[in-house]
Amino acid sequence: MNPSLRYLTCLALLLGAAATGRGDDPNPAGEPAIVVRLKSLDGLLADVKYLAQLAGKGEEAKQIDGIIESLPVKDGLAGTGLDTKRPMMLYGVATADAINSHVVLLVPVSSEDALLNFVKETLSNFGLKVSKLDDGMHAVAVPNLPFEVYFTVADGYAYVTARDRDPIASGRRIPPAKLMPTAGTEVASATIRIDRIPDMIKQLALSQFEVQIAAAKEKKDNPQETPAQRRLRLLVIDTLARQIKNVVRDGKNLDVRLIVDPKSEDLAIETNLTGKPGSALAKDISALGERASQFAGSLAPAFHVGVNFEIPAELRDAVAAVFKEAAEQSMQHETDESRRSTVNRVVDAVLPILKAGRVDLGFGAQSDSAGHFTFAVGMNVPNSGQIESLLKNDLAATIPADRRSMFTPDAKSLAGVKVHQVTPPAAELSGKDRQLFGNTPTMLFAFPENRALAAIGADAESAISALLQAKPAVNAPPFRLTASLARMAPIILQDQPEDVRKAAQGTLASAKPGQDMISVTLEGGPGLKLRASMKALGVTFFSKIAELER
Q1: Rounded to whole angstroms, how far apart are CA atoms 433 and 455?
Q2: Strand 417-422 and strand 407-414: pairing?
């Protein structure tokens, strides 16, 4: 759409909404659509110093105190009239006509007189003029701004807004007690009440979003894009766009929290999205918490990733078509009929998995007392027998004759299931291979009903035996990652010089169980919750690596 025409369309919608009154106002009481909370100044400074100490920058952080003491105000921050022990807040109210929407900043105050003196003296240095109004408010004239900034002090806070002073008038401003944070470990938090945003504003936003989606569909970054690839790309865009529209139309709350907790040594960010009760969005989020997985438990203590989701039905055939097309293109110039036949059988084995659209997968790593690793992976598949036949009869036949002894089909039986083994020649193991996997690593494969399992490393047999144990499926989140830095350090640092490895691993030497963990979890249920966390020791570990690399 032409930019001028788009602007006129938006203007017409805006004027039309204003002319029709407030019938679409989902928030007639004027409750905030967004609330942002920030820890007190003292709390923020303490968190900055804590993080700096973890990163080995404690001395640099101490300079903050010197900067504060150098402020041209008696008693430092306290002399500004600010209350450094209470949180700061901001809220925004969205009105049906959009024009009267407003944002208000709340700054804690210990002394109104000291604050006024500080504001007047500070702003005058920048050529700004503060004038007192007859209703107890103050106005700040800002050069080159078409409106003034207003503030007043009430309930122990300075309320600050712009353009219109009515939102901070007595009886209209929102008391701080209604906005206060709920937990002391939050550095910052935000709550967006999507359901309090008027439909007209949502429609304006969605109309602009539609323009961007249309542009993304028309964009051709890859001149070699095939029809199958284009169809998949357009379907992915449409699927993502639909989900975003559902959030805008049917979302209720979006909460975001940034956490620094020295007591638990937790550093985390959390988000939680809820839908309007009974909406399609709420049902979709709830469904994410009801899916069962056979790989929900940790496969290994050093590292674990669990994936448990469904590919949207409209994408499955398109994904399968792209995979099949890629396989066909790779064989265009292949004249060996046996190889062509093998690729076709690979395609025939993979297509049922893609078309089923169910991804239930676990991947993990563990290490022994010598520091040697074993990796294991398990996945639910609808055709485990077909995949096993492909491995034993087709892929094995492609191994050169002089290396075919590496592969032993039906090498052993574990838990009543045949296990196939690959043993790499010891002479071909590099120093790095031996360091990570030991001197005699093996690869094992097993295909019990509806599962494909594999393990590689120093103790592949125990890893695949654990996977073969029949365990009932349990509810599991769509995504979960856990990692122990102390156990994974040899892999993280494998490409670093020896002095860097030793110094970085030294930061983890005294770690107690759980003190070195990193985790990321996405889960459904009452809300779609994402949580990413790292223990404090992780900051020290990665900061040490960065310092040594410099």
Answers
A1: 15
A2: antiparallel
- What angle (nearest 5°) sits at the alpha carbon of residue 125, between those of residues 124 and 130? 15
| Nearest of 381, 382, 360, 354 to residue 306 by alpha carbon | 360
pLDDT digits 0-9 by tens, 477-496: 999 999 999 999 999 998 88
Average model confidence (pLDDT) for the chain?
Answer: 88
Q: Is 316 helix (H, G, I), strand (E, B) or coil?
A: helix
What token pair was written down for 444? 């094992």
Distance CA(89)–CA(105), nearest Å, equals 6
* Inter-residue long-range contacts of 219-223, CB under 8 Å, 24+ positions, other chains counted: none
Containing 346, the helix (H) or strand (E) segment is helix 337-356
pLDDT value of residue 71: 64
Count CA within 13 A, CB hemisphere, residue 364. Answer: 25
State how far the alpha carbon of 163 is from the alpha carbons of 32, 184, 389, in Å. Answer: 18, 33, 73
Supply the pTM of this predicted model. Answer: 0.87
Tokens 């960010």 -> residue: 269
DSSP character string of 110-124: S-HHHHHHHHHHHHH
- For residue 510, pLDDT beyond 70: yes
**Residue that is written with structure tokens 């790989």 in the block:** 295
